[in-house]
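During data preparation, we tokenized the protein backbone, and the record follows.
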Amino acid sequence: MSNSSLISYTKLSPNHSGQRTHSVDRITPHCVVGQLSCETICDCFPAGRGASCNYGIGKDGRIALCVDEDNRSWCSSSNANDQRAITIECASDKTEPYAMTDAVYASLIDLCTDICKRYRKTKLLWFADKEKTLAYNPAANEMIITVHRWFANKSCPGDWLYNRLGDLAAKVTAKLGGTASNPSGTLYRVQTGAYTKKVNADAQLEKVKAAGFDTYMVQAGGYYKIQVGAYSKKENAVAMAAKLKAAGFDTFITTEQGTAVTVKKSVQEIAREVVAGKWGNGEERKKKLIAAGYDYSAVQAAVNALMG
């Protein structure tokens, strides 16, 4: 398969596994954690880095090719997913909810549409449910969205984009001329709590995450709200609500979206990122952690514990 004609820059990374062993039926968008140009995104994947992507979308919406579509990139912490997914790194803010510019989002819609057209797909699907998505066998005309957070302890693609994946799927499907499963654009979310104090919302968010659910926080109507999923079909939201109730959470279904709220990661999450080299070293690391609002001593203690 040829690469997209939408690219304006090419710098091929050597970091890939060669030709795919599975046909393409997934698209996995990521947040690159930085408002980078498409050229700089390509520069993130030199030899020896152990990571790459098929495409990068810079903060101005320009698109770069980093790994040929025929080759499996190293992007999602999952060989099985990367073998069948076109992976796209998108310029974003450096902190939660990893917001993206309008130009990036518009180019993501265009790129996903172009990918689907070339693979003869008329629908892009988003189920907002890991188990359902990974168990689903797409029809010949269907492409599915997957996310990095399902395969590793990461927030990627960030709540800003995660909350818009239903919209992304609907807009791409409309451009393809396919039958949208939700022509009204309404998305159904399962809510597990609404709090006037963010500290209480933070506590509930951690409880829901600890129970194994992919959750996020939004602000609307003066409340901090904990929600799960964004479903184009109400029956899918009903099914998720049943799972949450079985896990001991009170729920109701809402169509209110709200504004994504920045949520600080736990000390353990930050410690793992430090070990992975994401916060730099020495005094640089200390300054970054303090600037981001983290207790440097607590993080360093957690790092020491991880390192034995």
